[in-house]
């Protein structure tokens, strides 16, 4: 990882969403639903949902990063896990902010793959080491990314909870 960082602003995020959505549309893919990987994927799913006119948005909570460059051994799905009945025979677009190691996306992709008609992935950033090569990528980088929603520390720390930096 380089010492310099990729800085995404909210304004640039808007540009990224339009361009990412255009790539999906140009490919002819028409998802029935967008499955966001929380937390960073929530922003991406919302932006893509509006741009692609998809109102059916779902959330999957996955914990992997515990700090800058610090992860659990493997990503873990947190409850509530989406019902496979909700995914059945649907064309699903999995949305996340970054495919870093790709382990989180792989976990979600594998969960969906057995239950959906088709699954594709869309991310703002993809890193070269990602296990998953995403279908739609706005930008490829090997640098650490400062996202506008996570660059500042929380305004409050909740008792008994770990504070995640990513």
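^ Assign residues to that structure.
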């Amino acid at each position: 990882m380089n010492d310099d960082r990729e800085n995404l602003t909210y304004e640039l995020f808007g540009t990224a969403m339009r361009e990412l959505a255009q790539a999906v549309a140009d490919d002819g893919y028409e998802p029935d639903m967008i499955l966001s990987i929380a937390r960073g994927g929530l922003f991406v799913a919302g932006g893509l949902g509006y741009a692609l006119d998809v109102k059916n948005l779902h959330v999957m909570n996955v914990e992997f990063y515990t700090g800058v460059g610090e992860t659990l051994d493997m990503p873990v799905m947190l409850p509530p896990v989406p019902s496979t009945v909700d995914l059945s025979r649907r064309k699903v677009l999995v949305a996340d902010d970054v495919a870093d190691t790709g382990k989180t996306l792989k976990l979600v992709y594998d969960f969906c793959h057995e239950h959906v008609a088709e699954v594709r992935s869309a991310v703002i950033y993809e890193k070269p080491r990602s296990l998953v090569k995403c279908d739609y990528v706005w930008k490829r980088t090997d640098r650490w990314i400062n996202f506008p929603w996570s660059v500042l520390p929380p305004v409050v720390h909740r008792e008994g909870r770990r504070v995640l930096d990513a």
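The mean pLDDT is 86.
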